[in-house]
Amino acid sequence: MKKKSSETPAPAAGLFGDLPAPAAPAKRSGLLAFSYSKMSLYEECPLKYKFKYIDKIKEEPKYYFAFGKSVHTALEFMYAVKAPPFPTVDEVCEAFRQDWNLKSYLEKGYRTEQRADDDYKKGVAMLRAYYEHNRVRLAPPFLLEYSTDVETDGLLVRIIADKIEYLGGGQVLITDYKTGKDVKRQPSQLYMYQKIAELDPRLKEKIAETYGQKVSNVRISKMLYYHVPTNKEYFFERADDREIGGFWERVLGVADSIRGLKFDPTPGEMQCSWCDYKKLCPNFSGGHKVLQPQAGPADPVEVLVDRYGRLKERMDELQVQLDAVAEDLGRAAKDGGEYAGSQYTAQVKKNSKWEFKNREAVIGVLNQFELYQKALTLTLTGIIGVLESEALPEEARKKLLEQAVKKTGYEIKVAKKEGLI
């Protein structure tokens, strides 16, 4: 790409120009149009899925989606060259500005123009930091914003990969850019990329067109979440057959539920707080949550087992995110106290907790000083009770402490502000 001194750069369509649009999922008879985002929404709340994808009721615009889209557009523009030189950092920021200005702050989902302006400045700073961090290793990728639809198991599955790099011999690296909070990432979305990319015949054709190599199959070597705000890279090795198989069972379970028109709501504090469909939901009336009686299980036990497993997996993923935010909140709160956000208040208390890594070594110390019975049971509470006893011999205390790791814990009590629903 040649630099233009007198013209403003426009965001590029893709590394190969306009990629052929994937066939519209709705037009393929007998196939269920599917994607990772659809699966995630169904697992969050089946009724919300119905409102959005079956009834096609539009949600309110979300500012974080608008922000992420503009950052992605600028990165796509930056990498959309077949050979160096790359655009300058100022040109990349100009591409960001152009995309940002396509919609008003209200259309992007902001409530105030000032908040939108603040995010714009944050985006420019983020892109400049990304450019500087990656300047020495800039290389034209294989594909950008690669969108494809693949038929498998009665589904028409769509993926959109932010960046694909070719490593040779049919091996590729897929990168997914993240612009939100820096939380511990689960590989589920990457599993979808791996499953579908390796089934996609177009990728083999693209490799032949671009590199002159005819490969019998495409193999995902590694997958990467790149957190743009911090320039942190989270690599995941290729998933094995067991991991992909378990993930795909989860996919097919969701697909079966959708085909079976199972759209019962799954109300919860987290998923209901930000839902745009409250006024349509039977679990809410006049803006207030209505508790619905739980019907007995109508499905066979095998279906319930799979449903429980999928919900448990989703809950575990949410718990990881909750723990990460709690850790951040605890650190930000310093010595603790009461804090208020726009919707919630939180009381944060810090405390110390002990962990004992070597169970056998702890048992040996307790037996040596005849303390095992005083611990009552070999639980953390029992051992700490012994450790904190004033009658404990100092030598015993010293040996127990050698097996202990003291960590900072956080007790957080959160409440919604009055007047908010």
What topology does this entry show?
Elements: E1 32-35, H1 36-44, H2 46-54, H3 63-79, H4 89-100, H5 113-134, E2 143-152, E3 155-168, E4 171-178, H6 188-197, H7 201-211, E5 219-227, E6 232-237, H8 241-259, H9 269-273, E7 284-285, E8 288-289, H10 301-332, E9 337-340, E10 344-356, H11 359-368, H12 380-387, H13 394-402, E11 404-416
Parallel strand pairs: 1-3, 4-5
Antiparallel strand pairs: 2-3, 3-4, 5-6, 7-8, 9-10, 10-11
Write a structural description.
The model is unreliable at 1-27 and 291-297 (pLDDT under 50). Among the domains are: 25-30 and 61-137; 143-247, no CATH class; 338-416, no CATH class. A hairpin with a 4-residue loop joins strand 5 and strand 6 (232-237). Strands 1, 2, 3, 4, 5 and 6 form a six-stranded mixed β-sheet that branches. A three-stranded antiparallel β-sheet has the order 9-10-11. It is 41% helix and 20% strand. With 421 residues, the chain is of the alpha+beta class. The longest helix has 32 residues, at 301-332.
